[in-house]
Structure formats: structure tokens, C-alpha cells
Amino acid sequence: MTKGYLNLVLHAHLPFVRHVDRDDRLEERWLFEAMTECYIPLLQVFHQLVRDQVDFRITISLSPTLLSMLRDCLLQVRYREYLYRSLMLAEHEVERTQGDAKFHALAQAYQTRLQEIKEFYDHYNGDLVTAFAELHRVGCVELITSAATHAFLPYMQTEEAIRAQIATAVTTFESCFGFRPRGIWLPECAYTPRMLTHLQEFSIGYFFVDTHAFTSAHPRPAFGTFSPILVGNSGIAAFARDEESSQQVWSSDRGYPGDYDYREYYRDIGFDLDESYIRPFIHPDGIRIHTGFKYYRITGKDVVQKQPYDIDRAREKACEHAGNFMFNRQRQLAYMHRQMGRLPVVTAPYDAELFGHWWYEGPIFLDVLLRKLYFDQNEIATITPSEYLALYPDYPCADLAFSSWGRNGYGEVWLNGTNDWMYPALHECEQRLIRIVNRLPDVSPSVERALHQAARELMLAQSSDWAFIMDNRTSVDYAVARFKQHINRCLELLTMVEAGRIDMDFLQRLESIDNLFPNVDYRFYRSSTCNDMQAKAMRRSSSQERSVLLLSWEFPPVSVGGLSRHVYDLARSMASQGMDVHVLTLAGGNSPLEDTVDGVHVHRVHVRQPDGGSFIDFAFQMNLSMLDRALALADDGIVFDVIHAHDWLVADAAKSLKQRWQLPLVATIHATEHGRNHGIYTDTQAYIHHREWVLTYEAARVIVCSSYMQSEVKRLFALPADKMRILPNGIEVPAVAADRANRGRENGDGSDDTVVFVGRLVREKGVQHLLEAAPAILREFPHTRFVIVGQGPMLEELQEQCHRMNLEPHIDFAGYVDDAERNELLQNASAVVVPSLYEPFGIVALEAMAAGAPLVVSDVGGLADIVDHDRNGLKVYPGDPHSIAQQVCRLLGDPDLRQRLRMVARDDLVRFDWRSIAQSTLDVYREVVSHTERQVSEVK
């Protein structure tokens, strides 16, 4: 009785490695080796199974670049030459090993195998695409596609570029096989919600994701990975990789291919034999290469002296492993069948190149496995995704977040310090091609050819293979050169189109070099018509309620600095005044992805948290995820009037949405990289500084929190004065205010006095200078207790400073405290010290004032606007421990001074009320929206 199904999926892909200029490029051997060791052996296995009337099912994804190469006449000729040289080497090897009991039989086996491969290739006249099509027609193999050039789709900036990759994939597949694919292999199993609309457009019914995409889905699928899910309300199914079956094949520790009886990949006669013998069969420049003649088995881990390879013994081991794989799937599916109440499915996807190329015995394993499943049992059967989806009328529904099957499950392989330089050029080409296509509805034949070729070059540059190679540090020079070639060719063609002068010789040369995708259409890059945007503008103008999209990487419960609290208070204050407020932010803790908090609509995105030097990559991924979610909100019918971005981390998403939706952008700059570091000294700082400039440049209005910040931002980014607005940070006064009379006695001798610091433990907050001032304070007031509230990277350094200065009995590092604990500390403080070296605003100063705590602050940044020396607080020189000690001692020794300062401070809080700040922010929105609507009206 059938208890479940096995969904075997092979993904066949190679980058486009066709080089017209010379026939000895090593990279073309990637294709020839894969054809000889993988594609043809697998085709032989599947065709023989059909002839033997074995009923099996398997799904094979053929990437459009691979299909293009398999059908290319030049590469077919060169492959025949490759086979001819391999057969010649086989003949030499049979002769060389004559009389060698260890290797002669294996040399003969290699020769026989190569002859069979040549006969198979000749039978199809070099057209392996036809061989795949025959398997599909008999119903044993389901063929599907992948993205055009195997691009890492989540890292594309525009919807048009994603659509072009998918559209070109479908048209290429259809031209090869005569029908449209039912499914798609998303390159690197990298999913982002932005793809769904385009998959729907081209009738794609399913795709594959890694295991953790399901474990992080919302809601979590009830059947786990043993059933597909329907993603959102798209009707498109996602199948998740089964971790157990994956480990048994892929794992370097427990996977079958590492068995000691299997053939050793790295020992090849191309490296082992004397150059005088092997030279005719390696690269003409004398570069030693793999020839495919390998005579040793793996033998053992880190074993130098390898043992001879025994092909019969390896075949027996492949049969044993096939039986073990089947047994494990039987146990797995039988258990899940009892749990689910329906027939479960195990989805086992692999790179096709593993079977035969990396794992020489892989085709034997698959052959034996499929025969055993058919002849030796009846508990499980193989099935294709389309067949499984037809079994039941209902499947679980869930939303999936960004994920891939790459290292650590997200996108770090394709975006890190080795390859991040590629993306600005890619995004520039995307945007430029789209602008040209949108501007030119009708073009001449020569311009049409140029735009078609520009699309090919851009898609070739987008291949995920180049970034992967750079990360893997193999053939890096080749990957860099290929990427730059395609980018430069694309840009040169676009420049010709814009100038109205096409160099036909140059164009024809490119068409002969990069000749893939004969049905490519530059119109795939055309944006949607402006009618939709105009309709949305009419809806905005006719609606009395305005809507804003706030972009911020911090929002409760994610709280790193003061940004989280600022955005939270601003958002809920605007919502209370009738604004429709949406916040797009980072998911954290157990917070739901969709939430409503105090009238604010909160939309959270999952992004892998930053780790050390990967913070820039994290920000890039977060922006892409935010862009995905924002576009999904628009698809759901939510219309925004204005975008409000907070700090550089969301600059890319803000810019893209502004351009796509043609909406005004407001930016709040809470701090600058230059100010935090007192200059720009590293590449990372320069990058952040540039993103800050981009955000201020794109914004219609730039909000800062103090006159100090206005001066700094204006100077750093050369902003006109009329573009800037000063709106201070705010405070909810009733939430923290308290009656001082209920908080103990007012003493003037320092007994039981508490000095409090609240803030991030980073250098610019200046807490190290407060510790330097502590000995002088303690000499005058020896019972003073210092409480340091906060977390940060300087904690250990500060603790060591306390130990070195013998301050440990007097210093309490309180770490993180919640709002209630913080307020209680502030209310009971004899002095709150804010010794910052750089402070754009200083919200803790307002919190202290609201709590009735006397203030000592550095005369720097926004603190200088808040505190008026000797009127509502005391000021000290930044970074000066003597000045800090002097002013703290004044407070500790003078209760009347403390009382006077706190009373004036409370009166000053009126101008920092969130309601008035929210109202001023809404005024900025009305200003920019009104200006935008006037511009639209003038254009009409």
C-alpha cells in the first residue's frame, strides 16, 4: 500500500561559457565535462529505464543558459572535438596500462564508456535537448525552467528586471520544447515575495525553497516540509527541501559520495603523469587539467596514499546506498502518513552535476534507486510536483520570507566583501535600460536589435555564477572579467541608443559572441503604464485621510538606540491625529509580521541579523525585503501619499519606492557617520556617508532634531536651507513625571546620592569621561553611587577601567533596564550626567527633565539646544573629566540649585510634546504632497 511519495528533482545549470575567439578556453570544458560525466550518463540511465518499462518519475530543471549552449552549433562541433581527444587518450591509456592488473581493466572501462557516450550523442545528432524532450513526452520526466541567466533574483533592484529574467526563461523553454513550463527552479532556491506577481503572469505553478523557508513561514505549515504550501493568496505552490534526504546525499561528513570505495575526484592523470606523455591532452599552454581518467578511490579521510579504484566494488556500494536511501524514505513517509491523514511527499532536490561529475557513481545510484522503488516495494512511489498538486483540492497557505539554500540560508554568498561592488553597476544598468525602453515606445529595426542585445548583456552580467565564484575564490579573474565585459557592453549599447547612432559592426560582433536567447525581447523591461499611478494619485487627492509609509530599521521590540522610541512615539502621535500611519521595519523577537500598535499599522520583514563586518550586506538585504513588502502592500490596495525614511539604513528602499510610486520623500537624519567618528576614515564609513547623501539628495524635505544637526547636515551634504526643517525629539511627559516629594530627602552632604548615566556604551556617549571624573567626585562626596544604565561594545573596556581605577565598589553597571526601571532610576537620581562627545539630540536629557532629575550635559550637539546653563541644567566641556566633576559636585552639594533647575526644566518640556511635534511633521507632509500635486497638475 502506498504510504507516500518521493519527489526527486535535479537542477541542471551552467553559466554561458561560449567563446568565439578561441577554442581552448578552459571554461568551455565546464560544459563538456558536465555533458560527458553527468548529462549524457543521466540521459542514458533514464532512457534505459523507459526501455525496461520501469515506471518512474523525476523532475529536471534545465536552465536557459544550458539549453542555449546544448543547442549551439559551435559548441556542438567543439564537443565532438573534445570527445575525439578523450577517445584518443583512452586508446593511449589502454595501451599504457597493458599488463597492469590494477589499472588496465579500468582504462578499458573508460574507453567503452566514452564510446557509448559518443554513440548516444551521435544518435541525437548532437541535440541533447531532443533527448530530454523524449523523456518528457513519455511522462517519466517533468521538465521545468530556471531564471534566464540564473540570476539571484532577490538582489535585483527593479520589478522589470525580475520579470525579464522569468519571461525570457519561459520563452526560451517554450522555443525548445513547444510548451510552457509548469514549474521553475528559482536560482539558488532564492525566494522573495516580489516574484509572485511575475510567476503568476507566466502561469508558473510551483517552485522550490530550502527547509528553513517553511520553518519560518507565517503561519508555520502544519505538515512541515511533507506537503507543499500555497504561497499567500497567489495560488502558486512551494515545495521545501527535505533536510534528511538532503543530508544523506550532500553532507561532507555523512553523505554517500564521501564513501571510501567511491572514485576520488581530485586524483587525475592530467596531474599525475609525466608532462611528455600527457601534454597532447592538456591545455596547449601546458596547464594541467582534469582529463576524466582517475584510477584511485577515496580510500580514507586525509589519506595521501590512495588505493586503486575498483569499479565493481563501487557499483556494489552504490546499490547498498540506494537501498539505504529507499529504506530511510519508507520509514520517514510511513511515520508522516500516520500523522497527516493524507499521503506525504518527500522533496529531494539536488544539483544535477553532482551525479556523475562530483559523484562518479551518482547515475548508478539513481538507476538502482528507481529500479528498487519500482520492483522491490510498494510503500512509496516517485511523483512529479504537478502530479502531487493534482492529488488534493486543498493545501496549507502561508507567507514565505526571503530565503535561499546558500550558506546560512540567506544571501551572504552572493553579497559580501568579495562581490558587493557588482551591484551598483547592475542596478545602474537596470534603471537605465528601463528608462530608455519606457521612453521609446516605437524604435527602428537597428535600435530594436541594439536593445535586444543590451538586454542579453545585462542578463548575462546578472548571472549568480559570477558572485558565487568570487565568494568561492575559484576562477575569480574569469568571473570578474566576464561581469565587466557584459556590463560594459550593455552600457555601450545603451549609450548608442541614447545618441541615436548604432555602430552596426560592433552590434553584429556582440550578436555573434553572446548569441543566446533568440526570442529575447527588450520590451520585457517596459514598466507598467502610468495609468495605474495616475489612478492612485486621483484616489489620494479625493481622500480626506492621508497615509504615510514610515521606513525604519528600528521599531519596538527592535531597539538598538533612540531611533526605535522616536519612530514609535511619532507614529502613534500622528495616528492619534487622524493620519493613516504604516511602519515598515525589521522583525525581532516574537513580534508578529503584521501588527497594529496604538493605531499604527506595523509591517515587519525577516532579515538575518548583522554580524561584524556584514552590516552593510545586512542593510542591503533589509532594503530588498522592505521593497518587497512595500510593493505587496501596494498590490493589496494600500495607497500612500508620502514616504518618510529614517536614517541611511533604509535609503535604497526609500529611493526605489519614491521613483516607482512617484511620491514625495521626507527624510529624518538622526545622526551622521561623519559626526559619530569625527570624520570619514574607512571605506565602510565612506559608504555610509554616501548613502546619507543619497537619502538627503532624494528627499523633498530633510528633518533634523536640532540647530546643531541642521548646521552639520547642511555642511556635509550641501543642502539648501529651504529644504531643511528642525523638529526636536519629543517626550511623553505624563508617562515619566513624578512628585519629587515622594522620593526621599533632599540632602546636601552627598550621603546616598546617586549619579546616573543612561545610554549606549559607545565611545561617542562619553561615559569613559564620567568614570575619569568619579575619583574627584568621590573625594568630596565619598558615599556617591554611580549607576551606568545601558549596553554596548565598550562594556568590558569600561569595566576594566573601573577595576584599574579601584572604582568597582562605587560603580553599578545595570545593563539593560525597561522603561519603568529607567524612570525610577531617573526620579531618584541626584544628578543625571550626559557626557556625550557627539549627540545630535539627546532624548535622555528630556527623559531626565520629565522625571525631575537635575541635568549635567556636554555642551555639544542637540544637548546645547535643550539645556540652558544654570537655568534648566548645567553644561560641561565635552571630553573634560575636570569640568564634569566640578558641575556634578555643584549639584550634589546644593539642594536648592537642584530644585530650581528641575522646576524650570519641567516648564521647558512643553515645546517637546509629541503631539505638537507630530502636528509639525504632518505640516511637512502637507507641504511636500501639495507641491507634488501641483507638479502633476502642471504636467497635465
UniProtKB/TrEMBL annotation:
It comes from the Bacteria. Residues 560-732 form the Glycosyltransferase subfamily 4-like N-terminal domain. Belongs to the glycosyl hydrolase 57 family. Residues 426-525 form the 1,4-alpha-glucan branching enzyme C-terminal domain. Residues 743-906 form the Glycosyl transferase family domain. One of its GO terms (cellular component) is extracellular region. The keyword Cell division does not apply. GO terms for molecular function: 1,4-alpha-glucan branching enzyme activity. This is 1,4-alpha-glucan branching enzyme. Residues 8-392 form the Glycoside hydrolase family 57 N-terminal domain. The keyword Transcription does not apply. Keywords: Carbohydrate metabolism. One of its GO terms (biological process) is alpha-glucan biosynthetic process. Substrate binds at residues 241, 258, 405, 465. The active site is at residues 188, 351. Signal peptide: none annotated. InterPro entries: 57_glycoside_trans_central, BE_C, Branching_enz_MT3115-like, Glyco_hydro/deAcase_b/a-brl, Glyco_hydro_38_N_sf, Glyco_hydro_57/38_cen_sf, Glyco_hydro_57_N, Glyco_trans_1.
